[in-house]
Write a structure and sequence with these properties.
The complex is a heterodimer of chains A (182) and B (461).
Chain A: E1 2-11, H1 14-26, E2 33-35, H2 43-47, H3 54-80, E3 84-85, E4 88-89, H4 97-123, E5 144-150, H5 152-164, E6 169-178
Antiparallel strand pairs in A: 1-5, 1-6, 2-5, 3-4
Chain B: H1 18-30, H2 35-61, H3 76-100, H4 110-131, H5 158-191, H6 195-204, H7 212-245, H8 257-283, H9 292-323, H10 326-337, H11 341-353, H12 361-364, H13 367-394, H14 409-432, H15 438-448, H16 450-460
Helix pairs in contact in B: 1-15, 2-14, 3-4, 3-7, 3-8, 3-13, 4-5, 4-14, 5-6, 5-7, 7-8, 8-9, 8-13, 9-10, 9-11, 10-11, 10-13, 11-13
The chains are: A alpha+beta (182), B mainly alpha (461).
C-alpha cells in the first residue's frame, strides 16, 4: 500500500503549461492528467497520450453500414419480392446497383457517424447524469491544470518545476491511497 | 501554439482574455432578455400558432385544403420543403467543409449556423410528412413490408432515397452539433450560480471535464464527422434534385440539377446565416467575435454561389435551345414569358443580379445593406423552387390538362407557421445555448486576437 500526494498545478496559459509538462516528463515524473478549457495542440505526445483509434472504429462502423444496406436492399428488392419497374426487372443485384448507391452511401454515413459518436461518448463516459470530471471548475473557463499523483520525493521535485515554469497556483489536495496490485 | 501572419485581419476584436470570452458568451444566458427579444418572440410564436392551426386543419380535412390540384400536385409544400432543406445546408457547410479547409473564421458562426440547420430541417420535415396526405401512415416510408403481404418500399425510387438522405442528414447534424456543445455546456455548468440552472447544464454537459484524452478524441471525432458530413451535405441536396431530375417532366429532366441545387442551397443558406448573425451580434453584443470581416467572408461565398446559380440558369436556357426538344424549349419559354413570368423575373433579379452588387467592397462590408440583401436572396431562392415546380406543372405535355395554380389560405398559413417555428426555436436557443463555440474560439485567441496580434507585432520589432 502506498500513499500519494495529489497536486493541482494551475496555469494561466498554454505556453507555460506545455513547458511545465515537458520539464516534468524530462524529470521522470508521470503526468496523471491535464485539464484545459480548449484543445491544446501538441500536448498529447508530451503528456504521453497515444493517438486515439476512434477513426478506425468509424471506418469499421461505415463498412458495417454499407454491408447492412446492401444486404437489406438485396433481400427486399431482389430475393424476397423482385419487381419489374418501368421495364427494368430486379432479377439480380448487380444490374440494379446504380439505383441502390444513394441509400448504400447514406447508410454508410449513418452508421459511421452514429457509431463513432456513441463510441466517443461511452469511451469518455459522457452520459447524462455523469459527474463532472474536472476537479477544478475553473479549467472550463480560463485556467489550465496539471493533475499529479506523486510520492513525497517526487512531489518536491514537481513543486519546484511547476513554480519555476510559472504556475499561478500549486495546490495540495490531500493524499490518495493506491492499493497494490497482486 | 499556432502563429499567424500579421497581414491577416484579426478575428477577435478588442482586448479580450479567455475570461472575457466566457463572460461575453454566458451573458445572454445569465442575463434577462430585453424588450426586443420579447417582441420578436411574441411575433414568432403567434406565427407558429397560426401555422399549427392550419396544419391541424390540413390533417383534419386532408390536403384538398391546399391550392394544389390535379395537374399541379406539387406546389407550395414541395417548394417550401426544398427551400428549408436548402437553407439548412449552410450550417453543415460552415461547420464541416470550412473545418476541413481549416478556416478559422467559421468558429464564430458555426454553432448558430448548425442550430439553424437543425431548425430548418425540422421545418422541412413538416412539409414532407404532411404532403403524403395521410401523415399517420408515414411509417410506410420505412423499410417495412406492407400489411397486404411482403411488398417492400421501392428502393429504386428517388423519393425513398430522400427519406434516407434527409433522416441521415437530420440525425447526423444533431449529433455533430451536440458533440460540439458538450464542452461549452460544461463551461456554463461550472460558471452559473443558480442551483436549478447548474443542475440543468450539468445534465446537458454529460460530465465533461476537458482532459487530454477527451480533447484528443473530441478533435478526432469532429474531424471525421466533418469528413462524413461533407459528402453527406452534397448528397442530400443532390438526392432532393433527383426527385425532379429522374422524372420525365420537361424542365425537370436535366443532369444539371444536382450541382445547381447544391450551390443554390449553399447560396440561400449563407444568406439565412447572415440574416440571423447580423441580428445575434447586435442583440447579444457579440460584435467583437462576429466582425465585419466575417460578414465579408460570407458575402464572398454568396457572390461565388450566386454566380454559379446564375450560370446554371443560363446553361439551362442554352441546353433547352440546343437540345432541339420542343417540350424542353417550351418549358423554359413558359417559365420566362408565360402567365407566371413574374416569378421567373423575381428569381432572376434576386438571385442573379442582386448578389453581383457584392463585388463592391463598400457594399459587402455594409451591414445594413447585407441584411437587406440576405433577405432578398432568400426570397429569390424561394421563387427559384416555385418556378421549377409550379409553372412547369401548370403546362405539361397535354394542352388539355393545362391548368393554373393559386395557393390557399392554408398553404400560406403553414408556410408562415414554419417561419414562426424557425424563429421561435432560434430565439429560445439563443438564450439558453452558448451561441458561439467558445472553446474553439479560445483556442485561436492567442493567434487571431486583435490585442494579442498587436503585442506580437511590437515584440517582433
Amino acid at each position: 500500500m502506498a500513499t500519494k500526494q495529489i497536486i493541482h498545478g494551475i496555469f494561466g496559459d498554454e505556453v507555460p503549461l506545455l513547458e511545465a509538462c515537458t520539464k516534468l516528463r524530462a524529470a521522470g515524473i508521470r503526468i496523471k492528467d491535464v485539464f484545459t478549457p480548449f484543445p491544446v495542440h501538441g500536448i498529447d505526445p508530451i503528456v504521453g497520450v497515444p493517438r486515439t483509434r476512434i477513426a478506425i472504429c468509424a471506418f469499421i462502423y461505415g463498412i458495417t453500414g454499407l454491408s447492412l444496406a446492401t444486404l437489406m436492399m438485396w433481400y427486399m428488392m431482389v430475393s424476397d419480392w423482385p419487381n419489374d419497374i418501368g421495364g427494368k426487372p430486379n432479377w439480380n443485384y448487380y444490374s440494379n446497383v446504380p439505383a441502390f448507391i444513394p441509400i448504400t452511401f447514406e447508410a454508410t454515413v449513418f452508421c459511421a457517424a452514429h457509431g463513432m459518436s456513441l463510441t466517443y461518448l461511452l469511451r469518455c463516459w459522457l452520459v447524462p447524469g455523469a459527474k463532472a470530471k474536472n476537479p477544478d471548475p475553473r479549467t472550463t473557463d480560463d485556467k489550465f491544470m496539471i493533475y499529479l499523483e506523486l510520492n513525497d520525493e517526487q512531489s518536491k521535485k514537481a513543486d519546484d518545476i511547476l513554480r519555476a515554469t510559472g504556475a499561478e497556483e500549486v495546490n495540495y489536495k490531500g493524499m490518495i491511497t493506491i492499493e497494490p496490485k497482486y | 501554439m499556432h502563429a499567424e501572419s500579421q497581414i491577416r485581419i484579426p478575428l477577435i476584436l478588442g482586448d479580450k482574455t479567455y475570461r472575457n470570452i466566457t463572460d461575453d458568451i454566458i451573458a445572454p444566458i445569465e442575463g434577462k432578455a430585453n424588450r426586443l427579444w420579447y417582441i420578436l418572440f411574441t411575433i414568432s410564436a403567434l406565427a407558429f400558432m397560426w401555422g399549427i392551426g392550419c396544419l391541424s386543419y390540413t390533417i383534419g380535412v386532408g390536403i384538398g385544403a391546399w391550392g394544389s390540384n390535379n395537374g399541379v400536385d406539387w406546389a407550395w409544400d414541395i417548394t417550401n420543403f426544398v427551400w428549408w432543406i436548402g437553407i439548412g445546408h449552410a450550417g453543415t457547410l460552415i461547420s464541416a467543409v470550412l473545418l476541413l479547409f481549416r478556416q478559422k473564421w467559421r468558429m464564430a458562426i458555426n454553432r448558430s449556423a448548425e442550430a439553424m440547420t437543425i431548425f430548418a430541417v425540422l421545418c422541412a420535415a413538416i412539409f414532407v410528412t404532411l404532403h403524403t396526405g395521410r401523415p399517420w401512415l408515414d411509417y410506410w416510408l420505412f423499410p417495412l413490408p406492407n400489411q397486404f403481404g411482403s411488398l417492400w418500399p421501392n428502393f429504386n425510387s428517388p423519393l425513398l432515397w430522400d427519406v434516407f438522405a434527409v433522416s441521415t442528414y437530420a440525425t447526423v447534424s444533431i449529433v455533430f452539433w451536440y458533440i460540439g456543445l458538450i464542452p461549452d455546456f460544461a463551461m456554463i455548468r461550472d460558471r452559473v450560480v443558480k442551483p436549478k440552472m447548474k443542475k440543468a447544464y450539468a445534465l446537458l454537459s454529460f460530465g465533461w471535464g476537458g482532459n487530454v484524452r477527451h480533447w484528443s478524441r473530441f478533435e478526432e471525432v469532429s474531424l471525421v464527422l466533418a469528413g462524413l458530413s461533407t459528402p453527406l451535405v452534397f448528397s442530400v441536396h443532390s438526392i432532393v434534385s433527383f426527385d425532379f431530375a429522374t422524372s420525365v417532366v420537361p424542365g425537370w429532366h436535366t443532369t444539371i440539377f444536382p450541382p445547381y441545387f447544391v450551390s443554390g442551397a449553399v447560396f440561400s443558406g449563407f444568406a439565412m446565416v447572415l440574416t440571423l448573425m447580423l441580428i445575434v451580434r447586435k442583440v447579444y453584443k457579440l460584435e467583437s467575435y462576429i466582425t465585419v470581416q466575417h460578414v465579408e467572408y460570407m458575402n464572398i461565398v454568396i457572390i461565388v454561389t450566386g454566380s454559379i446559380v446564375g450560370v446554371a440558369y443560363l446553361t439551362e436556357l442554352f441546353v433547352a435551345w440546343y437540345s432541339g426538344v420542343e417540350w424542353e424549349q417550351y418549358a423554359f419559354l413558359n417559365r420566362a414569358t408565360g402567365p407566371m413570368w413574374w416569378s421567373y423575373a423575381a428569381m432572376m433579379t434576386c438571385n442573379v443580379i442582386s448578389p453581383q452588387l457584392f463585388w463592391f467592397k463598400k457594399l459587402r462590408t455594409n451591414l445594413a445593406f447585407t441584411f437587406v440583401l440576405s433577405i432578398v436572396v432568400n426570397i429569390g431562392m424561394w421563387f427559384e423552387r416555385f418556378v421549377i415546380i409550379v409553372p412547369t406543372l401548370c403546362r405539361t405535355y397535354l394542352p388539355s390538362t393545362w391548368n393554373t395554380y393559386s395557393p390557399s389560405f392554408i398553404d400560406v398559413g403553414i408556410f408562415v407557421g414554419t417561419i414562426g417555428m424557425f424563429f421561435t426555436l432560434f430565439l429560445l436557443y439563443s438564450r439558453t445555448f452558448p451561441v458561439i463555440a467558445q472553446a474553439e474560439l479560445k483556442s485561436i485567441l492567442k493567434a487571431s486576437g486583435e490585442a494579442q496580434k498587436k503585442a506580437a507585432a511590437q515584440h517582433a520589432h
